[in-house]
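hey so u asked for the seq, here:
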Amino acid sequence: MTEPAQSSSSPSLPPVLARLPPAGTTDGDTILNAFLDVVAHDKRLSLYPAQEEATLELVAGKHVVLSTPTGSGKSLVALALHFKSMSEGTRTIYTAPIKALVSEKFFSLCEDFGAAYVGMMTGDASINRDAPILCCTAEILMNLALSSEDHKIASVVMDEFHYYGDKERGMAWQVPLLVMPDTQFLLMSGTLGDMTTVIRDLQRDTRRAAVEVTSAERPVPLEFSYRETPIHETIEQLVTTGKAPVYIVHFTQREAAEQAQSMLSTNFASKEDKAKIAEILRGEKFDTPYGKDVKKYLSAGVGIHHAGLLPKYRLLVEKLAQEGLLKVICGTDTLGVGVNIPIRTVLFTKLSKFDGENTGILSVRDFLQIAGRAGRKGFDDRGWVVVQAPEHVVENKRAEEKFARGESKKKPAKKQPEPGFVGWDKGTFERLTTKPPEALHSRFALSHGILLQLLQRDAGDGYRRLVDLVQRSHETGTNKAKHLQRARQLFQALREAGLVVVTPRLIDEHDGVRRQRGSRVDVVAGLQIDFSLHQTLSLYLLDTIELIDPASETWPLDVVTVVESILENPKAILLKQQDREKTLAIAEMKAAGMEYEERMAELEKITWPKPGEDFLYSTFNDFAKKHPWVGENIRPKSIARDLLERYMTFNEYVKEYGLERSEGLLLRSLSDFYKTLSQTVPEHKKTEPLAAIEAHFRALIARVDASLVEEWESLVNPDAKDKPSADAGAMQRSPVVVVALDANPRAFLLRVRADLHLLVKELAQGDVDDAAAHVGGLGVPGLKAALEAFAKDKGHPVRFTVQAREPGHTILEKDGERRYRVRQVLVDDAGDNDWVIEGTIDLAARQNASDPLITVERIGR
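ran it, structure tokens below
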């Protein structure tokens, strides 16, 4: 491990690093005093009682369970543990549930300790993974813990520890506690509940004292209220009484969008604020179908924020909110870690939500997680949490009041809720605001992957380790018996697949008598799986593309299909595809004279497009027989392939399927496809057509919102980017460090060609506004004039055909250090092909990932 260069006097060192005592210091008082200097002089803070107690216990070497509200400074306590480990010359890890929070903490710790001493692993990529401070997701930590006893991790901070009770991911939060007996833990959350069992078992397994530090005191106290007024009146009252910004919580993206639309008739922004908003929006691009709606909302001082939005729109909402220009923000309950919006009031539109299976009342934990975002430390002396009564209850109350005042002669009939409605009342509200969070329940679960990791780690003793893991789990005795039975089933499946070998243990041999005791279990030679870097289905992808004939004309599209099959299903997009398939099928069946009942029966069989479905399921079944640890199935679909075969732009695809409110989901799906194709398919398998497909999606994604893929590339290729200074001050969260696009000449040519093809397509369609938004130079007037001149000369508009996309029509020439000249031939019906687009690329001058790659200088002969 690299030794930090510690010196309290060096001004060039990052602030916290400069305060570290001499390397290898273990004296608690020395470490504590140095850290208190960090708090007082560098952070300019003083510790709250809970922070002070937790810090003292950590320095004393104890585990700490820290349960304090949102905004109470848990991050400073985490910094204390990292500081302690760095002082002692040992390794420390920070882990969190989502990549956004891991990334945020990574950059924060880089500022404190310097980039050389901080690393990150998220599953997508890793940077400086052997650093003394590592930021990672919980699943990465679990894999590190299972892979070796000799991990040399002295301390671990587990942020948002309430994920321990998550049905899908809780196992990753429990395993480190079971298999890292020499590690000191800090478990943090604002909504932990009763931790008695976890603390008891942690002390038992590590033989180290554990203490719980709790406090209900918030730096910014909350006031709760229940409203039975119409929601528009509630919002207006909150804004006019100085309780804005108000975050209005919905449980679907559709409801959030409808609420934002309904608020346009109310004037929430002053004339001055609208002018400031307009100034900020002037430099922003709203160049997607939903962008026009987003701009309309923001211009009126109304924010919208949910996962269906493009990242650039969400970041813009956050920016305007931080400037104090948005009085109301309509969003979903995904508001939480990694979302940087200052909020004074949280307004719940409902207290029940659909969880994917059933509709039910929010848990106390979920309610408090969302409510805890109200009130901004340093800005507000208190925060407000307001809950709306059900809409039908509000309407009934209004009608009764109107009748009581004599404004209505007829007693109103009570309005009923919609079928399936799960209601709440003031009693529900009071329970959620006064009860503690529910106790966390163990989510221990075994898999072939865990078994294989243990078998590979411990020569001969892996199965015994597995049994020991089950016995030490936080499960009940009955559940432990079930897990042991499951372990035997998993092991038998591996043995039948020929992946493990059981060998009797020979104790000794005397007088011709062989004595043995027990058996050893070994993984067959050559089976090495790095679970920290690859999802299991990536192995299926590698196996399956070997079965596709690279000489086949459909080879590139077949690879696209296999790549898509291992990715998550974006259900909202697939259901839109399914609706379209059914609409087309109904038209065909009606034209064929099919009876109604028969049509309905046939419609039930129709789903979204699944090209190569039989091949995918057949090859996967064969793969699963040889790899029985596979815990998930493939998911045939066609989103990237559908877009590619029809050569549609992002905006065209959004309009085709009515995905305006799911643009962010579509972009993430295409980004995941691009990243998997780029990272998982071996380079030697990327034929020219397949490499061109990769470049096409890279260009398409960059035109929409480059932030997702640029950040990923800067982590995947840390050596191929314009590097920042080693000084921690250079480690900034924004803008993202831009990868040197020309580091790989072949990939760069393909990227440029893809960009020019998209430009030609836009020109052929007459979309000069879109074209001008994606390239520099001529602008809308210049492009319009060029199109008119081309049509006058050739007698037809610009063509975008297969011939127009031939590789030879794109010419790229170097023109200095990181400067290039480009030419794109425009084909014509006569075959003269004497018109060209000429432009330049200046990578050295390109400051931002969203800047156009190509500057068009001329279109003509």
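Residues 5-10, 528-534, 720-739 have pLDDT under 50 and may be disordered. The two ends are 62 Å apart (CA to CA).
lmk if thats what u needed
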